[in-house]
Structures are given as structure tokens and as C-alpha cells.
Amino acid sequence: MQHDDIVLDVRRVTKIFGGDRDRTLQLIAQGATKAEIQEQTGAVVGVRDASFTVRRGEFFVIMGLSGSGKSTLVRCLIRLVEPSSGQIFIDGQDITQLSDAELREVRRHKTAMVFQHYGLLPHKTVLENAAYGLKTRGVPKEEREQAARAAIERVGLKGWEDYRPRALSGGMQQRVGLARALAHNPDLLLMDEPFSGLDPLIRKQLRREFAAMQEEAGLTTILVTHDLDEALTLGDRIAVMRDGQIIQIATPDELITNPADAYVASFVEGASASRFLTAAQIMDRDVTTVSAADDTDAVRRHLHSRSARSAFVINGNGTVRGLIPSEDLSRISSNGDRRAWETAVRQAVTAEQDTPLPDLVPLALKSRYPLGVVDHAGRLVGQITKNALLKALADDIEADEGSTPDARQPNTRDGATHVERVS
Ligand SMILES: Nc1ncnc2c1ncn2[C@@H]1O[C@H](COP(=O)(O)OP(=O)(O)OP(=O)(O)O)[C@@H](O)[C@H]1O
């Protein structure tokens, strides 16, 4: 991995609240538990020897029960909470060594934060709030308002620019917080439970929208949550914390199939593997008959010849980001317009985001034709037959009935078991 790819490098960060710092560090080094330390010294270990790196564009989630140290850790990263020991590098710069003035500069220019209590300025308008981060950076008014308007539109609040936060619902206020972060376009975005306190439907919707925006903008994001669903759907990698310590850092798939210990296993118990099966895992990649993968005409012709009536558009992780419906596909296939194809792919991605595979079963059942699988660039990368989809889900239900996480392994680990050759 290139050093340039690392935005954040956290090395052995510990935060101790109260008590004797040196004595507590010593006890930590000796392996004393949080409870023992508290009993012996009165100190509370907030974060214990945490180390991890985050790559540019990565979505890194910190998860754990209440009191496990998530908020303390994320606040330590920009010294809103002062770490007791350890080092933190943002873009190669050691944050722990900075003067107050230097630290302010880092916070203004490199990082943005979205916390649960939106942190909006009540007397400022939505537009001013969204532009606030840029204002503190000294960006001229016209330029910052332009960026803020674009961000407001992206979070779906166009038309609300001149209102004050109190006129907005909680979900809308949270969107203003997101707009502010997006307008700022930080190197590192820190979010602490940003979707809590919203009702479940809004929460889900906002989460999905945010995931799409995050990926599109290529933001490097650290999200704190105690919500497993949120962690698994959003995270590229997830760090699980207990008693201030990071117990495991893993991808969502690894976390479900291979939890480090009983604590992590109990966390992910509720997750059904089928929700995390991806289109990429069950698709048939044997589409080599498309000679020029970049040739959208060839892709359309191929879909047509295979009688694929609809096509999924998938992202880099293999999850479904949208569907090109049969009407569109046949219209485009017959008129051969490359532009129309590209537009259809784009529209499919904006219309539906990260649909869990099981949600697509009714659609697949309705059609006796295979589904095409297309990447963001409009290239055909595979196809899914109805049988392959059903088999994958049936296997998953069987595995889910087994009580150990290992029972689910074949489904999430090795998509090849579900691939049905159709050619
Ligand atoms: N200012 C403080 N003074 C003393 N102890 C603190 C302080 N802030 C946090 N702690 C302690 O540090 C530990 C970690 O707390 P933290 O708030 O980081 O956990 P969390 O995982 O974010 O929890 P939650 O999900 O409830 O917000 C807890 O034991 C807490 O009591």
C-alpha cells in the first residue's frame, strides 16, 4: 500500500480520564482490565491502545456498546479530547505535536464533523450553515455559497436555503449538517451517531443517500455507531470496540463469517447472511463472448442475445445499486443509441441504492430471463439466472438455521458455490 493512500494513521492511542496517568499506563501495559484499573487508581480508561489506518476514500466504522469508547476515540483524532498517549497522523502530519493554532488550521482545512446534535447555528439560514465551514476557511462569499447551494441540492434540500434550522424537521436538520460537510469536502469526515434520533424510515433513507454521496465524492469517512445494520451496510471496514479496546477490524463479510471472539459474534448474531450476499457473489461471470468489454454496443447486443430483459447495475463491492428495467433495456437495445445506454445506467444508479439481494427476488421470479449485471461504466460483467438466485437464498436460509456463524461461511465467503453456468 502506498503511503499516500493513508489519510489517517492512529498509533497506540490511549485516553485515560482522571487518576494517575503514568500509573494507569503502567497498569495497562501489564494487562490490567478496565475494571481493575478503575478500582485501583480511580482512573477510567476511555480508549486503550488503539491502532488502525484509514485509506483515502474508505468508509471506516467504529462500532461497540455504549461506553466502549467510540466517541472518545473519534474525538481524540482531532484532539477534541486530548489523548493521554499515542500518535495520530492525518495526511502524514502528527496531530499530537501541533500547537493550538496549527490544530485549528487542521480542523478548518482538513476535517469536518457531523455529530448527532446537528451543531447548526440557529440564527443562520440553511445556506449560511452549509457554507459555514468554507467561511471559516476564508473562502470568498460567492464561491462558498455556490458550493453550499450545490451541497444543499445534493442532500435534497433545494428550496430551503433561506430558512432557519428551527423551521426544519430533525431529518432535514441532519441533512444540513451533511451539506455542510459535503460543501467543505474535507480530507477526513468524522461522524458520531449522525443518524441517531431520527425515525427509522428517515434514518434508513438518509443513510443510503449518504452512502451514495460518500462514494461519489470519494470522501474518507469515519463513522461511529452502535447500530449493526448501519455498520454493515455502510462500512468498508468495521472496528469493534469493548472496554476502550479495538477487538477486531474487519470487512462486514469477515465480521459475520469470522468473528474474533464471542463478544463480536454476539454482536453480529442478528445479521442474516442473505442480506449481505452481493450480486457479484452469485453472478455468472462467463460472458467472455463480449469481445470488447468497453464497447457498450457489444454489451447491449449481448444482453439482447441472451434475452436478458433487465439488468442490475453494481458497484465496486458487487452490491446492487440500481436496476435498468426491461422497457428501457429493450428500447435501448433496439435503437442502438450509446448515449441512451449510458444515461440508463446512470439513472439506474440514482434511482435505487444498494438494494439487498433478497429484495430483488420477486423481480427475478417474475422474469424467466436472466438478469444482466453491469458495472458503473456500463460494461457487462456477468449475469444472474433465476435458479442461481434462488439457490443462493435457499442455501442461505439453511445455513442461517445452523447456530454457529461458521455455518454461514459458504454463502458469504465463496460466491462460486452459487454460480450457475448458463452457457
Ligand atoms: N469526560 C469524561 N470523564 C470521565 N470519563 C469519561 C469521560 N468521557 C467518557 N468517559 C468514559 O470513557 C468510557 C468511554 O466512553 P465513550 O463516551 O467514548 O463511549 P461510547 O462508546 O461512545 O458510548 P456511547 O455509545 O454511550 O456514546 C466510558 O467508560 C465513559 O464513562
Automatic annotation (TrEMBL):
The keyword Transferase does not apply. This is Glycine betaine/L-proline ABC transporter, ATPase subunit. GO terms for molecular function: ATP binding; ATP hydrolysis activity. It comes from the Bacteria. GO terms for biological process: amino acid transport; glycine betaine transport; response to osmotic stress. GO terms for cellular component: membrane. It comes from Sphaerobacter thermophilus (strain ATCC 49802 / DSM 20745 / KCCM 41009 / NCIMB 13125 / S 6022). CDD domains: ABC_Pro_Gly_Betaine, CBS_pair_SF. NCBIfam families: proV. The keyword Flavoprotein does not apply.
